[in-house]
Every structure is written in C-alpha cells, then in structure tokens.
Specification:
This protein is 57% helix and 14% strand. The chain is α+β, with helices and mostly antiparallel strands. The protein has two domains: 291 residues, Beta Polymerase, domain 2 (2-Layer Sandwich); 61 residues, Magnesium transport protein CorA, transmembrane region (Methane Monooxygenase Hydroxylase, Chain G, domain 1, Up-down Bundle), CATH 1.20.58. Strand 4 and strand 5 form a beta hairpin. The longest helix has 66 residues. This is Magnesium transport protein CorA.
C-alpha cells in the first residue's frame, strides 16, 4: 500500500514539475551571462516584456502639481532645478543602454543600475551616500490563470527626488497618484522619504489582497478534500504549497527592508515618516504570520489526503477480504461434490441440489451476520 501511495505522489509530482521549473527558470535566467564580469555590469536578467522604456514625471508641492507622460530624460532633468518634490517613473527596465543613460544623468551607482536590470532580486535596502535604494516585489493574483504574478519594483530617493522603476508598462501606483492629484496635504508637504513610504505601503496593501485570494482558494480546496477528493486534488495542494513558497520569498524579506528604512537617520528619513513606517512594519509581520498559517494548513491538507488514500485503500481491501472469506467455505463444499465417487449418497438424493444451495446461502448469511456483530463491516 505504501508503494501505491509513493507511486501516486510521484506521478502527480511529475505533472506539477513544470510550474516548479518555471519558478527556477525566472530566478536563474541569463545569470550565466554575468559569469566573470565585473560588478556593475549591465546584463538584463528576467523575462523581457514586449515594450520600450517610457518615462513619466510628477512635480508637486503644497500649492503646485505638474504631471507629464512620455517625457524625455532632458525634460526630467529640467524639473530638478526647482525646489519642489519630483517623482520620475520609469516603465520597462530591460534596455541596458537606457538604464545606463538614466544612471549617468541622475548619478546612480553602477551597482544600483545592475540591480535594476536584475528583475529576480530579493527585496532589500541599500544606502549609497545621499541615496537610498529599495527593491520590493509587487504581487497580484491572476484570476484567469489562478496564479500569483510578481513584478520587481525599484525605488531610489534622495532629498527632493524619487525615481521608481517598473518592469511592465502598467502603473501599479495609481492610488498614490490619485492622492497627489486630489491635493492630499499630508503627502504633498512631505519629501521623498514619505513618498517612498507611500509606495511601499501600497505594495504591502496589495499583499493582503493576494493573501485573501489564497485564503479563499484554500477554503475551497479544504472543502473538496473533506467532501470528495479527486485525482487532481493533490496537484492543487502542491500548487498551493508552491504559491506559499513564492509568497514567503517575496514578502518575508520586506520585514528587514522596512526595519532598515525606519532606522535611517535624518535628513534622508525624518521622524514624521518613521512613525508611519512602523505601521507598514506591523503589516509585514501580519503578512508573515498569515503565510505561516497557510503553510500549516497546506501541510495538514497533505496529511488528510494521504489519510484518505489509506482509508480508501483499506475499504477496498476489506471488501475484497470479506468476499474471499465468504467464498472459501462455498468453494470447499462445491469441490467436495465435484469429486467423482459413486458411493456418495447425496448425489442420488432428489432434493440434494436445492438443500446444498440452501445450506451454502445460509452459511453465507451467517458469516455476514457474524462480521456485522464484530463490526468488521
């Protein structure tokens, strides 16, 4: 029976292998191209989406707000001469020449440029003199494919400037932009550190949305597991296990990122922003606690599934054993009367056949009654 279970698990694992290989492919893609190169070499790593790099800019203060789409690097540089806060968004990070040009114009460290192109980065925070560099993972749940999709978000900020880099051309910070357009005093009067906090807070809030979807899926999977498990149920459990691993890889390091962020001293991060960062830190702790709970639930589901396989196999074996046990004495009786001896008196008795059949039926019923008395069936 253990061999049956192992074979069943192996078969499902082979079908599930494609998704695991896809995750590893994203982490390792093009890394061999960087072997032997010096630190700061601009080699794009990851899946290149079919679009070019685009830039947008937002300049704001308490009384002013300027927003421009599809601008050039020169236009962005012109806005840096004002005392207002400037937010530059870069959509698309797979063109080394463009990233190098942006890095040169805005005096970005070579290692920052390298990490921007490496879209499989683990969330982290680095400090380069008067600049803070943050890497985070933006997660969303694809309802059509029932999969978690992640995107790297890179943030660089100083005093009055913040530059954000997104892999795709879809803006994930529309809620923050809307607050700026509406003249939110709290965000409009603060510097780049508070804007960086607002963007991280948006990213963390989306974690809760993804976790809610995963929780709903786990509830449905648990109901299916208890009510009527199917051959594809194990694959669903394995996929949920892999999704939780992706969640942990993306969310767990954010705890250290936010912790380091709130420990940066002025003037890069002021005390007002540090208070709000504590709230983001608490949300990260909640996310990690939820993920640990998901891991326990999935582990329990796997145990339940294996128990169901054992129970089902035992039921089958029990039925086969009962049938075999009942037919053993019946086979014995029929084999006796199958012998060709002339001196057997029952062979010439007119009611011999119906009596033997009645005896065999009675014996079978008595055995079934005995099994029920023993609660074997």
């Amino acid at each position: 029976m253990d061999l049956y279970i192992r074979n069943h698990l192996s078969f499902c694992s082979l079908e599930f292998l494609d998704f695991s290989e896809f995750i590893m492919y994203r982490l390792l893609k093009n890394r061999t191209k960087k072997t032997g190169l010096s630190p700061g070499s601009l080699i794009p790593i990851g899946e290149k989406p079919p679009h070019e790099i685009k830039l947008s800019i937002i300049e704001y203060s308490e009384s002013e707000f300027i927003e421009k789409e599809n601008v050039s690097i020169e236009e962005c540089l012109d806005h840096l001469t004002t005392p207002n806060m400037t937010w530059i968004q870069v959509f698309g990070v797979y063109d080394p020449a463009s990233i190098a040009s942006i890095g040169k114009r805005f005096d970005l460290h070579a290692l920052i440029q390298e990490d921007i192109l490496n879209t499989s980065q683990r969330p982290k925070l680095d400090i380069y003199q008067d600049q803070v560099f943050i890497v985070a993972r933006f997660l969303k749940y694809n309802q059509r494919d029932h999969q978690i999709q992640d995107e790297q978000v890179s943030l660089i900020f100083g005093q009055n400037l913040l530059i954000s880099f997104l892999e795709q051309d879809k803006d994930v910070f529309t809620s923050v932009k809307e607050r700026l357009r509406q003249g939110n005093i709290r965000i409009r009067k603060q510097k780049a550190d508070y804007l960086a906090y607002a963007l991280l807070d948006t990213i963390v809030d989306h974690y809760f949305i993804v976790l809610e979807k995963i929780d709903t899926n786990l509830d449905h999977l648990e109901e299916e597991l208890v009510r009527s498990p199917k051959p594809g149920t194990l694959q669903s459990i394995q996929r949920a296990k892999q999704e939780i691993a992706v969640l942990k890889r993306s969310i767990w390091p954010m705890r250290e990122v936010v912790n380091r962020f709130q420990r940066i001293e002025p003037p890069l991060v002021n005390a007002h922003t540090q208070i709000f960062l504590k709230d983001v830190y608490d949300h990260i702790i909640q996310n990690n606690d939820i993920i640990e709970g998901f891991r326990d639930v999935v582990s329990g589901m796997l145990d339940i599934y294996l128990s169901n396989i054992n129970i089902r196999s035992n039921e089958i074996m029990k039925v086969l054993t009962i049938v075999s046990t009942i037919f053993v004495p019946l086979t014995f009786i029929s084999s006796i009367y199958g012998m060709n001896f002339d001196s057997m008196p029952e062979l010439h008795y007119p009611f011999g056949y119906p009596l033997i059949m009645l005896f065999m039926l009675t014996l079978s019923l008595l055995m079934l009654h005995y099994f029920r008395q023993k609660k074997w069936i």
